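Sample entry (308 residues):
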Amino acid sequence: MDLTLQEIEKLNELSTHVYKMVFFTRDFLIVPIILFFILWTLQKTKKNQPFELQKYYLKGYYYRLLMIPLFLLQHVVLYPWGVDAFNYFWASDQLIQLTKIKPSMAWYVLTHSVGTLQNFPFNFDLNEFYFKDNESFLVKITFIINLIIGNSFLGSSLIASLYAYIGTWKIYKVLNQSYPGHEKIFFITTVLLPSVAFWSSISAKEAYCIGAMGFIYYSLTRMYEHKEFTRKNLFIFIINAIILFYIKSYILIALLASYSLFIIIKFFSGIKSKVIKYVTLPISMMILVFGLLRLMDSFQGQLQKICT
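Predicted structure, serialized as tokens:
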């Protein structure tokens, strides 16, 4: 599966990870098209939101859009050698160019685990992000998105930012359903939170983690509190749990632990007998801790399988 010398030279010539570029003339076509479809979709889905929240729906996304140039300005000026967000794109671009030269090699890199790649003697310079657990998963996501949209850092960032925004909006909806009448303050403290909007505005770990957390929290709430244990909610939970697991598994563990604790506390708050509470609450907490430890062991085992 080695590349010839001519193929290696062509790959190095085509791959933007060599030249450290993130802006291209094709962005003038790709970005407006993607932005048009995003705004069109948000406008169409606005009517499906609770009436009292509709006026905030597009405003929140416009605010998120403002964070993209701010993020780029800061990181292009302060970190010209590249940050993780740029490296995901450069690595995915290399895989796209490899697809043009030798599709079988690109398919091998895309479908094999980190450990397999580490043991494979490539005769060309493969981006180091392919050999790191969390980064490798993000590179593959970025590759798939860029393969569809035409290979654009700004375009893939718009999609990742939208995913993060919808996840944040899901949390905002849950808060308003649980505590109605505080739409404005919840909007400011969730959707408009500067640090969240800033760091999740670009195609990077933060965007996918925040988006996945929002969808997981929303689906759990629909299944538990609203008794809507449907295939749709279960599917949303599973897909986003997988995304969060492969990017930052400890966030998934912390999220599930906190929600499990919420369920336990809510359950025992409805028990009037103090005797039953004092006897069963410690047992329930022990079961929760034991379950989380087993879950962590399981995750660690899965990660070891991925790396070998």
